[in-house]
Every structure is written in C-alpha cells, then in structure tokens.
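User: Here's a chain of 926 residues. Predict its fold as tokens.
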Amino acid sequence: MKMKPQLYLPSLWLVPLLRVTLLFFFLLLLVLSPTKTYAQSKSISVTNLLCENLSNPIGLDVKTPRFTWALISPNRNVMQTAYEIRASKDMSMKTAVWTTGKVASDQSVLVEYKGTPLESNQRYYWQVRVWDNLGNVSAWSTPAFWHTAFFTPSDWKAKWIKVGFDEDTLNRPSPYFRRNFNLKKQVRSATAFITAQGLYEARLNGKRIGDYYLTPFWTAYQKRLQYQVYDVTNLLQQGDNTIGAALGSGWFRGYIGFQNNKNFYGKELALLLQIEITYTDGSKETIISDENWKSSTGSILYSEIYHGETIDARKEAKGWDTPNFNDSQWAGVRLADYKGELLATYNEGIKKQETFKPIKIFKTPKGEQVIDFGQNLVGWVQVKISGKAGDKITLYHAEVLDKDGNFYTENLRPAKQKNEYILKGEGEEFFEPHFTFQGFRYIKIENFSGEIKPEMFTAVALYSDMKKTGEFTSSHPLINQLQHNIQWGQNGNFLDVPTDCPQRDERLGWTGDAQAFARTATFNRQSHNFFAKWLKDVAIDQAEANGAVPFVVPNVLGKGASGSAGWADAATIIPWDMYLAYGDKQILENQYESMKAWVGFMEKNSTNYLWNKGFHFGDWLFYRPNDDNDGRAAVTDKYLIAQCFFANSTNLLAKTAKVLGKNEDANKYATLLKNIKDAFMKEYMTPSGRLVSSTQTAYVLALNFDMLPENLRPQAAERLAENVKSYGNHLTTGFLGTPYLCHVLTRFGYLDVAYDLLLQETYPSWLYPVKMGATTIWERWDGIKPDGTFQTPSMNSFNHYAYGAIGDWIYRVVTGIDTEESGVGYKKITIKPHLTTKLTHAKSELQTYYGKIVSEWKTENGKTTFNIEIPANTTAVISLPATSLDDLVENNVKVSQFKNAKFENGRAVFEVGSGKYSFVGGAGVR
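Assistant: Prediction complete.
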C-alpha cells in the first residue's frame, strides 16, 4: 500500500524563530555583501580615462605616465574622496604592475604612475574606481590601455637607409623603399616604429599604415626627431609579407622660410623602420630597415610643401608594396645616419578631418574654371577622374576671388599651391597628394578638357587631431560666424606647430601669434599636448648663450631672428596659460629654465631695469588711421611695449617659481618686477598718469600688466575708453594689444565699450571680415578693403588666427567661464557672465578634464534665465547680475540660501558644487 506524500510542517512555535533567523541573515548580507557597490554604480561612475591626456595612446616613451578620469553622477555637490587604480599587462588585471589600494584624495587629474618599471613596447591596461562624499563607490571602470614606445636608444635595431641610386636633384622625386619578409608562425601582435628624415608614408601588404599624415611631423630636427608607433597586427599574414615606404622632402629638405631657402636640415632623405612581432607561441621576431632593402622612384614626381605635388600614375609600379612584385630592377640602399634624439610622438598627430563638396562651379570673367568649396580650409582636394593615358588635370589653390570675381593668388608670394595629376588611362582613377598641403577655399582647374562635375572633387581638411572641447553660440548670427571663423583659423594653422598662415611661402611657427592666441586655443580644442610638445622646441631653439627666443619655432630664420618683445614672451605666457587651463605643473617644471633664460635676456639687455634696445616687431599690423591732426593713434612706442612684456614675463616667472616651491626665486623676481615697473613709470608716464604714447595699445598693455600705480589706473582706463569712442567705437590695436583690449575695458567698468567693439560691423573690427564673407580670421583688419581691393599682397593672409584671440574674452567674459588660480584646470570654477542689451542669448560649453561646464544666459520678457552645469569633483563660485540675493531663484530656492552667498556691486555671488542649475531673476540686463 502506497503512502501519500506528506508536507512537512514545523511546529508553530518554530515559525517566528525562522522569521527572525531569516531577517538576521538578510541584514547580515546587506552589511557584508557588495550590494553597496551595485547600487552605487548607478549613482556614480567613471568615464573618459586618459593616459598622458590621450585616450588609449600607442607609443608613449613616458616612464611615469599620468592618469586622468572624470566622474559622472546625477547628484549635486559630488566630490571624489578616494580612488583606487590598478594596472596590468593583461585586460583581466591578473598580471598586476601597479595597485594603489584605496587612496584618500580628490585628485582625478594627472595622477602619476608609481608601479613597477615599465617595459618598452608593452601594452598595459588600467582601470579606476572612486568613492564620493555621499557614501557611494563606483564600479571599476572599463579598462583603458596605453602602449609604451622605446625607452632607450638600444631598443632601436633598425638602421637608417637612403636610396642606392643617383637622385634627380632638380625635381627630387619621392624615393620609394621596400622589403619582402616571411613569417613562419601565426602573429599574436605586431608594432611598427617608423620615422624619417623628410616625410614618410608607410605601407604593409598593399595597405597604408596608420591614419596620420605629414609624418613624422615637424620639430627642431637638428636636435630631435619624432617617431610614430602603430599597431600593425591586422596588416600582417603568415607567409610572405612586404613592407614599403615613400618619402617626401617636407620641412626637412624642402623649401621653407623665405628667399628660396631649402635643404635647411639636410639634402638627403632617409628612413628608419622597425617592426616588433610576437607570435602566438610567445616567440618574437624583429623586422628592420637595413642593407637588405631595395629603393626606386614611383608616381610622385615632385612634392614640396609650398609648391604642391605632381603625380604621374603611369610611373606607379603596380603592386610595389605587395609580396608578388618583381623588384629586380630596383636599386639597393645605402646606410645613413642621424645625430639627434629620437623620441616618440607625444601630441596628437595630423589626420584627415572634415570633407567638403563643391557648393559652386563657375567660370570667372577671365574664363577660369573655378570651384568654390564654401570654406577656407587647409588640406587638399581629392579627385576622381577618367581619361586616356597621359591626360592631366592641374589644380591651383586660392583663398579669395578679386573684386571682379577672378581667381586671386598674388598674396601667395612664390608659393605655387599647385597639384598636378597625370592619368594612366585605366578607368576611374583616384588622386590626392601625399607630402604637401594647401590653404584654400577655391581651386582653379587647368589642362582638363572634360566636363567638371561636383562628384569628382572632395576637399579634405587636415589638422592635428585635437579633441574639440568648446562651443559658443548666441542670438547674434555674426558673432556665431566669428566663433566659427576663430575655430577654423585654429584648425587650419594647428598642423603639429602653430603656424601663422597655411597658404603662402611661410607657414612658420611664429611665437608672437601663438602667445596671443594660446588661451583661446584651449577653449576651442584640447591643446595641452600640442603646446607641451611645441614648447620643448621653443626651449631647444632658444639661444644657449643669452636666452633669446626665436621669432619662429622651429627656427628656420637663423640665429639673429630672435629676441622681440611680445614674440619671445611665448616662452613664459604659454606655459602659464597651459597651467591655468589644464592644471599641469609639469609644463611649468619642463619650461622653467627656458622661462628664466628669457627673463634673464631682458634683464641683461636693460639699463637700470629699462629695456630700451634691440629689434622689436611692436604692435604688429595695427590699424593706421589718418590722424595727422592729433596723433591719438600714432605708432605705439616699441620700447614701451617691450617694458610691459618685460614686466609681464617677470611676473609670470615669479608666480611659476611660487607654484613650484622655489621661494627664493619667487622673491627675487618679485623684486625685479617692482624695479621694472618703477623704470616704466620714470620713462613712459607723466606724474598725472598720461603715457608718452597715446594709443589704445599703450594704455591696454599698461593697464593689463598693472604698470601704473593703482590710484592712476581709473583715469588711464577712461582715456582708453575715450580713445575707442573717438574712433566711433573702433579699435586701432595690432597683434599685441588686441588680445587684452576688451578684457581691460571690462575690468575697469567699460563693458558697454567692449561690447561695442565686439559688435562693430565696419572696418576696423572683428565683424568687418565676417560681413565681407570671411570663413576664417584674417591677418589684417582690412585684408579686403570696402571697395573690394586688397591690402599689401606680400603680407595679406586670409587664414591667420592671431586676431581670433577675442575668443578668450567671449568665453571668459560674455558667458563667464574661467578657472581660479587656487584651483587651476577648472578644479575651482568661476561662472561670471556679463550681459548686454545687444544680445538676448549666449551659451558656452567647455569640456574639461573633470567634465562639461555650461554657462548660458537668456533674457526674455524682462527676466533672465541662467542655465549652469558644473562637473563632479569641482566647485564653482557663481556671480550673476541681480537686484538682490532674493532676486534670483533656483528650483524655488532663493540664492540667499546658497553657500557663502553675498551681494556686491550689483551681483549675487555664491558657491555651488557639481550639478545642473537653472536660475531665474527679474534683473534682466543693466
């Protein structure tokens, strides 16, 4: 007989005991289990992991890299209280090279690696988690990586090679190199290390290596040469392989500077290439450039940066970069040498960026066939074309048309800016240059008899691949276009070095232009590594004997071209600007001796602390009105300018010394600064505070650098404002006065005058070129005159970023985003917008290492709304126009309830932590 299954029921007295027991274990699990981590991963997370300011960089020769991350949280007032980093040779983090443990710190920017010594050519992975002040801990971030380069010269096994045949020294066609090799095993990883004396483009098994252009970029070649590192694992195959490279003259031996100058760094091009291969079984092999390579020429018949490139497709040896090619007719190679330092590329490389299609194809009154791409850009034009063998197409490049609508190239000076393509006659063919670039909006087409169709042409912008960080927009369309022009002026002139212009026979790293624009550059794009790299060249090219800084860097103008006030001060101004923008003390440390040497040059060349000798550019390209009657816009005394920059650089050096803990130096330069200002007042100022030069620039510099006693500054500012008004609210400043003009007016209570200058639409002004159709910043205020004629052709670039320095004022004053010196790099943020009745809306966004900052104001129906966003792990002091602390309300909370709130000078000033805020007030604009 089967028994029915019975449900076992405990005695009734056991039920409460079981309930208590289960509750106890549940509470114990809450305490001991990592549920907090799970919950908090939704409250706080880590993003934007950077190693040496780069995302997953390949090829860092930095032995102690620094790590940066940003926090994301929906909560307000979030601060990091601790972090933990772990690094490993594998993504699973099992092979640890560094574990910090929990570190009590709010530092999330530039945290230095302190693990076991790093190895050359090794990929490392790292991740981080953080704790915040609200009791949350994040999950571990997604692993990021960095790949090391070579740490010692002995890591290089490759040999420098050059062609083994007699070169055509007149046209200098591009040399080609190749080598076959066989891999008998399956490849797990492979890394290529490549550089050249000249420019190179490397290929592996028929495919281009990497997406950089104009490599190895431009440095002070006589002392140092960059190499690039590429992951080429996917380009290799088991069995036969071919590595190849073509070289171009570039900056190394091409035409550079003025007076038909060439071969500045050398006459012969050379290649250095090494591939490090690791097989799946763990064994390794190295492929190097050596005597076993072959050399020849190919389709690139001629290539110069200024003059362009000629490509004859009939000359291309088909398959030259693949294993099956017969190279029996190629010559061998000879060994070459290089005496300078080889270093890995630290900054972002030049890459292809935006593309543009023709917006108009037309014939000029002269009958020229012209294409308009609608944007003045830097790069080249790609062509897709069909025809017979030997047919050609010639492209000339220009920035503007003349007043009659004809193609205008007189401002290019000797630069030809010409690309020529000769067809091989095999269906549709594709052409683009390799070792040149052009500055242009228009192209003129010659030597082509077929129909010109828009789909045949694509303009490609080239510039250093710096991440876009800032954006500004407003209710004023012309200001928005000005912002666009500022950004594109930077794009076109930031090709590894900050060039002055990208089209004529110059394209040099003028130091004066760079220092004027550097702070603006940091708002538009991530300029940290770009300037860190270039500043090292500034120090290298600086005269060892006396500390004079060249006019251009890299210096291709010679030893005597140095020491001009406002130009050489790039050595002090830019390091400080980078420190403010990015919070990087290392830049100050790296440049400190250079900064000291430049201040030392000025001090040695002064008499009783008065620097009044030597050559100076002065307030370059200032407006020259017809003022013979009163002289109020006369040329600013160049030695007055020099004395002002002498003081400014000394002040920055004293502040730098203090930041670096060099207190003795800080005191020394503070004393020197006082003596410099005293000498200025004795030489250039009357007892009542009038300056010997009555120009806008004279008063701007004296006020901006605090050269006058405090009690005499208001009357000097009034003179400046009256000068501006006397010209009908027009500026008369040049390269040195313009960057500070609106800042000084704002500082001394003339905001309305500053806005009048910004919004002025007639010449000279920022908006005059905009009204004339500019899409970049012009070199001159009147590059094109109101009657359509041109300024002096020999000095008239239409893509010249210096006057774009007004962008700094737009960000820091119009929308008021700034960083405090006590919390650089936007750790401590200032939001202090300045409103005007001439605008109803303005908004800036800025991506910082901590995250996005937003400052927006909108005036409507007598009320103003301020939308502000502060990233996690930062704090901000907000200063908004108001009638009282209770006038502004945020989410039904009066500002008077905010931390340290106070009312001063018509503004509500208070502190906030991270978060999004929307303040509404009835103050409007006053």
